[in-house]
Design goal:
The protein is α+β, with helices and mostly antiparallel strands. The protein is 27% helix and 24% strand. The strands form 11 sheets. An 8-stranded antiparallel sheet has the order 6-7-8-9-16-13-12-11. The longest helix has 21 residues, at 422-442.
Length: 712
């Protein structure tokens, strides 16, 4: 919940409602420190200043036009759980730290000058959308309380009548000399001595001021800043320390732990210490039992190729929070949410793969819920279309059931007759139908299994043998004309035919057979050779969508499994080659070149992909098989020790590993040779030692005899 961070541009908002807004490393002034940051959620900004009161942040290109301050990055320090910066315009040093639902921060101040402290909490912040109501007041000389209610663009579009409410209760270490209010904020005015410290504690909640206070008292009542910082950083050490790595490369270590940090930071807690959680329209609900965190989350689109695999490996409580949250949303509203902000539907992509993620969790052993109710919700997510709200996505389900694919609509819309993004919808629905089918099979629901497994083959209906691509079709059964395989947005969401033709993760064997094994391998290898010239994405163009016209785009979800498909086509050494190259070249350690160049990181997804690839572990099917498997790649890290989610320990070690020695020569698991490029997940989770012997040239005899199963 508490994701306190500096903001350089948050009050500008964004035109489309989804772009990343807040802190931009290219900008050199700070407008305040914002407490709430989630998909479609942002708000409560504090800023210490000196001198006359100013009530607006000011413009980035107009110094002195507001209360924002210049800063130098040499005077900035950022660590997990801690941030410090010198605000040059005011000679004020601000330090921040955070816990799950509260924060404790001191501000070091210059002497003998008036110092207004601005809790300007009612301004627009990032993706929050317009502020519809806000209030803040002092309740005694050292305590204050307030609220902000916003109407984000995606709530307006996908859940009319919804809203995002944020509440605070705070304490300052010294009573101000005076206070003043303005439209959406409060001034706390001090006269200070040199290096005097003013501390502030803030409790946060999405449900009420009373719960914000309860959260503060539970987490930070008696903590000093130093104690709070130590506690926060110790928790981060515990979390990051579940996977400890040994490597001689600083770059590898920075990439690894930065990716892990982002993966763990991504989805945010939305429930309070007493189990209260936000429901539709600002109403508060109560978790029963109160033994998990209700969360806010972007769509799970593509996260089965990164986050859920990491969660199920070592962080099962994160997966559990996601599953239980979605089951609660479904119980409250009748449908899963394709993305949720305080229980409001904020559908990012409209294809709702929540059922897939829950079914995969079931296959990995996550079953501490009413399985029958969960199954009915998953089944309805795949097959239900009557009275389906737009925010739950899959609005073309009726057409998919009728035709076996979603028919193409030239107009940019999705409804019961088809979709403009019809081809990508068909491929995603086919995959999620497969996941549901496998769960039905495990539950002995044969009739459901047969219907769903039939729907999982919808991709076949889009195969065009003339161009050997998966191409959109009309309801009449004809392929669309004026077809450009590199063009995004016409039949494909955030991608093109060159990328989406490989979106058959549920049945790689038949995709390879359909295209022809030699053609498949030659074509896919050629794609990676060409893509490498553009850094496996959009080159150096700084934009989330920079790579959607590319032949391959690692900067967005639809392509994240593709480099692993060589394991299924008899050339595992090419998976080793290209996953290693992506890790080395797409990922960086610079402010701009971190995940490509400003591409779509999506709340930890690209970071989690790096973690799995660097460990040499992945599953193209996202653990949706009735008996999930793990494919093997080329581990970058020389040694990793993983505390598995079941309490056991897995050590992944390499011999002769280097930048040049990227090819697997042989593998041993617990002292026995492993001849295949995969193993069952159940075996891996027993723990032990997985040893990779590496070399400079491919061993084309290893891992080719028995490819990973494509069970149907």
């Amino acid at each position: 919940m508490a994701k306190l961070a500096p903001s350089t541009n948050g009050h500008y908002g964004n035109a489309s409602g989804w772009e990343a807004v807040g802190y931009d490393t290219r900008q050199n002034s700070i407008e305040g420190f914002v407490h709430f940051h989630e998909w479609q959620v942002g708000g409560v900004c504090f800023m210490p200043t000196v001198g006359a009161q100013r009530t607006v942040p000011g413009d980035l290109d107009k110094p002195g036009s507001g209360y924002r301050s210049a800063f130098a990055r040499k005077n900035q320090q950022a660590e997990p759980g801690y941030y410090k910066v010198l605000l040059d315009d005011y000679d004020i040093t601000a330090e921040l730290d955070r816990h799950q639902k509260s924060r404790v921060s001191p501000v070091y101040l210059p002497g003998q000058r008036p110092v207004p402290y601005h809790p300007r909490h009612g301004q627009r912040s990032g993706e929050s959308g317009p502020v519809t109501n806000a209030g803040i007041k002092m309740v005694d000389p050292t305590h204050f309380e307030g609220y902000v209610i916003t109407n984000p663009k995606y709530v307006q579009k996908y859940d009319p009548g919804g809203k995002v409410s944020m509440y605070i209760y705070g304490e300052v270490s010294k009573a101000p000399l005076s206070t003043g209010s303005f439209t959406t904020g409060l001034n706390l005015n001090y006269t200070t001595t040199r290096n005097e410290q003013i501390g502030i504690k803030v409790g946060l909640s999405y449900t009420s001021i009373a719960n914000a206070k309860a959260n503060l008292l539970a987490e930070a009542k008696d903590l000093s800043f130093d104690e709070a910082k130590a506690k926060a950083q110790e928790e981060w050490r515990r979390q990051l320390g579940r996977i400890t790595i040994t490597d001689t490369s600083r770059t590898n270590k920075v990439k690894f732990y930065t990716g892990l940090f982002h993966a763990l930071l991504g989805r945010g807690v939305a429930s309070d210490v007493n189990g209260a959680y936000p429901k539709h329209g600002g109403v508060a609900g109560q978790l029963e039992p109160n033994n998990y965190n209700f969360i806010n989350t972007d769509a799970i689109w593509g996260a089965f190729w990164n986050l859920t695999q990491l969660w199920s490996l070592s962080y099962p409580e994160y997966y559990r929070d996601f599953v239980h949250t979605q089951l609660q949303v479904c119980a409250d509203k009748g449908w899963f949410g394709d993305g949720i902000a305080n229980s409001e539907y904020v559908s990012g992509v409209g294809t709702n793969l929540v059922g897939l993620a829950i079914a995969a969790g079931y296959q990995t052993g996550l079953r501490d819920y009413d399985v029958e109710k969960a199954w009915q919700a998953i089944k309805n997510n795949e097959l239900g279309w009557k009275d389906r709200p737009v925010g739950s996505g899959k609005m073309d389900t009726k057409a998919f059931l009728k035709y076996g694919y979603s028919p193409y609509l030239e107009e940019d819309r999705t409804d019961s007759s088809g979709a403009h993004f019809s081809a990508s919808h068909t491929l995603e629905y086919s995959f999620s139908a497969f996941a549901a089918a496998q769960m039905a099979k495990r539950l002995g629901k044969q009739e459901d299994y047969e219907q769903l497994i039939r729907l999982s083959n919808g991709w076949r209906l889009l195969y065009n043998p003339t161009n050997q691509l998966l191409q959109p079709k009309t309801a009449a059964g004809s392929f669309i004309d004026k077809f450009d395989p590199y063009a995004p947005w016409r039949g494909y969401q955030e991608g093109n035919a060159m990328q989406y033709t490989f979106y058959v993760p549920q049945n790689p064997h038949d995709l390879v057979a359909t295209l022809g094994r030699d053609y498949f391998n030659e074509q896919l290898n050629d794609i990676f050779e060409k893509s490498e010239k553009d850094g496996f994405g959009g080159g150096k163009t700084i934009n989330a969508f920079a790579g959607i016209t590319s032949i391959y785009n690692h900067g967005n979800e639809p392509s994240l499994h593709v480099s692993w498909l060589f394991n299924f086509s008899g050339r595992p050494w090419l998976t080793q080659k290209w996953t290693r190259a992506i890790c080395n070249e797409f990922y960086g350690i610079e402010p701009i070149h971190g995940y490509g160049y400003g591409q779509d990181e999506d709340q930890g997804q690209l970071g989690a992909w790096y973690i799995m690839a660097a460990l040499g572990l992945f599953d193209v099917k996202g653990f949706t098989d009735a008996k999930p498997i793990v494919e093997l790649g080329s581990p970058i890290i020389q040694k990793a020790v993983i505390r598995l989610g079941n309490g056991k320990q897995l050590s992944i070690e390499t011999t002769n590993n280097s930048a040049a020695n990227l090819y697997v020569q042989s593998v041993q698991f617990n002292g026995l040779p492993l001849h295949d490029c995969w193993l069952y997940r159940d075996d891996l989770m027993k723990g032990g030692k997985l040893l990779f012997i590496m070399g400079p040239t491919p061993n084309k005899q290893w891992g080719v005899k028995i490819p990973p199963p494509s069970a149907q």
